[in-house]
Write the structure tokens for this entry.
Amino acid sequence: MTTKASIIRRPAVAGQFYPGHPDELRSAVDGYLAGAVKSGPDPAALISPHAGYVFSGHVAAQAFKQAEGVNYDAIVVLGTNHTDPMARGCAIWPEGAFAMPMGDVPIDSQLARALMEADSRITFQRSAHQAEHSIEVQLPFLQRVQPGKKFVPIIVAEPTLENCEALARALVSTLRERRALVVASSDLSHYPRYDDAVRVDRASLAAVVSLDPSALQASIEDCMGEGIGDLHTCMCGEGPVMTTMLYARQIGAEQVDVLKYANSGDVEYGDKYRVVGYGAVRFALGSAPQGGQHA
């Protein structure tokens, strides 16, 4: 029998990736958001990084600032699989809550069940979520810009194009007629030198703006084939990002803005010899000139 306690997902990286004390966390997130700028249309989807806040918090804030004050009635956060090699398809947490230092973030269980019914690849896999940080790190920002809202967490455990297409179709069918926000959690290049990271990440972000997942796959394949020293990956959340691109295209999003780009070499704590890249991207209905900024 499932007990209430058993469906509460406990934080895995509180006090490591972000402050573990509620007041310190609230102050940190509010400080990052205060330094961000809200402009342009309300997002239907976002890409936000998931590194430690001292490195990527200012980039995540620029993404989440765009959702501040918007009256969403459905929120889905897509994470990537860093921790569970046995996870398959798309792993959802379908009920209960994610416990966080600033309070529990409740699961939208009705929406979760609808997504599971929409495609058999979307299943509850507890082990995929328990140690995974990519969704957890987004939640304090979500709590501040969408206070009290429910959400659905899904880890794209196997980031094949087929799985991403299936998840995108499920999102489109279940979120139809709702004001929804989909958040893709991803960092960009891992561990090249600063100048290489900027070049690789700009190529990845240009492919994201195209709304063509095959262009993103080709860009990643090209960059990984260059033999760039210490480049381990171009995008750790390729699955969440491709799913979000497909979802955005299918709902008619025509405006894609790179809101901010930076890497860990841009902050006081980072060096420029081994960096990780971060991007904030907005997908919105309608069309307008695309823009972007560096840290």
The longest strand covers residues 253-263. The two ends are 50 Å apart (CA to CA). The chain has one domain: 5-285. Residues 287-295 have pLDDT under 50 and may be disordered.
